[in-house]
Specification:
Elements: H1 2-13, E1 17-20, E2 26-29, H2 50-54, H3 56-62, H4 67-86, H5 93-115, H6 123-148
Antiparallel strand pairs: 1-2
Helix pairs in contact: 1-5, 3-6, 4-5, 4-6
Length: 151
């Protein structure tokens, strides 16, 4: 991870800018103002974080990136709504895409967390807190599923 952060830092020293545009969008711009594609893991300076792909809850919790849990609640609730509309339970790609998105953006989020001097949780604390926050994030989905009768 440090190698990725150093790569991002070197580009920022060359005149690139990195900022959070909204609560999920990260903008990484060249000195000319052209936006760098941060979602393509093969061409992005930050690369792809496999740890963030398999454990996005833990790494986002560790750096206090709460947007993951907001999106998790939104996507799981949307999946229940779509499942109830189409009478099937085949809508499962939302979670995969969310993990993929955060795996691509995690190096930039980590860089911003370091720059903002956010105090990080220990891995153990982040692990247990992420379990609690994941349960809290899917509670609306469970309530919606019970009301709509989706199994």
């Amino acid at each position: 991870m440090q190698k990725r952060l150093d790569s991002i830092d070197a580009l920022i020293c060359e005149g690139y800018t990195l900022k959070r545009d909204s609560w999920i969008d990260i903008q990484f711009n060249k000195s000319s103002g052209e936006r760098v594609n941060t979602i393509n893991p093969w061409k992005s300076p930050g690369g792809f974080s496999w740890i963030a792909f398999f454990f996005p809850q833990v790494v986002c919790c560790q750096i206090r990136e709460w947007s993951y849990f907001y999106w998790l609640a939104t996507i799981t609730s949307a999946s229940v709504l779509i499942s109830s509309l189409f009478n099937n339970d085949s809508v499962t790609t939302g979670g995969f895409l969310l993990n993929l998105y955060y795996a691509c953006l995690f190096p930039y989020m980590r860089y911003l967390a370091v720059e903002e001097e956010r105090k990080e949780f220990s891995v153990l604390t982040a692990f247990f807190l992420s379990i609690v926050l994941t349960v809290v994030a899917v509670v609306p989905c469970g309530i919606l599923a019970a009301v709509l009768g989706v199994e």
